[in-house]
Amino acid sequence: MKCSHCQLEFKESELFKEVIHHKELHFCCTGCARVYALLLDLNLESFYDKLNDSTLAPVTPQDSMSALKLEQALEENNKGELILNLLLEKTHCNACLWLNQKVLERLSGVKKVSVNFTTHHLQIVFDKSLNPKEIIQKIESLGYGAKIYNAKNYALKAQKEQRSYLLTLSVGFFATMNLMFIAIAKYASYGGASYGGTNYGAGMDKLMQRNLDLVSLFLSLLVLMV
């Protein structure tokens, strides 16, 4: 049987029943029940349709961000509004990002919420009357986490990943081409291929074939290691 919020499978004895909006539902923990009730109150139950076959982690308490760290991360635009850039954590799919955006848009004092569905970067523009701590608490109440988004650190991480991808691609191309040449040489030696009256590869001895096998093994392992 599935938990009505996180959609994870549990034994029926591990779930507890709770009636929310005249519906009898099953939950694995009070955190999941609380979030489910919150989404219904905000008319965001369509979140569960967007999940499809995805599952969520059960809602657990979070370690809130310090007020000092939040204050240092705030920016101000030319309208006198505050801007907070966050990196969402514990998200499983685009439905999770959509949910955070819609819930924060309903928070009193919030003017605009922008989400990058690729980087999980969340930007919130809000009035000074709203305590930024409330934004973090609202995200955590849904079972997600957030930390300060650092564009410079993200760019460095992206560059590092790009270099890693290029290295993997280069090694894979190098190994594939050499394996192909070795396969052609061995194939020619087995059949004693000839062209223009001249035999090619027929004289390859067992030692050479064994060495080529070792080189092929090394190239294959090299691709697996990078």
UniProtKB/TrEMBL annotation:
The keyword Translocase applies. Keywords: Membrane, Translocase, Transmembrane, Transmembrane helix. It comes from the Bacteria. The chain crosses the membrane at residues 165-187. This is Heavy metal translocating P-type ATPase. Pfam families: ATPase-cat_bd, HMA. GO terms for cellular component: membrane. PANTHER family: ATP7, ISOFORM B (PTHR43520), P-TYPE CU(+) TRANSPORTER (PTHR43520:SF8). Coiled coil: none annotated. Residues 82-147 form the HMA domain. One of its GO terms (molecular function) is copper ion binding.
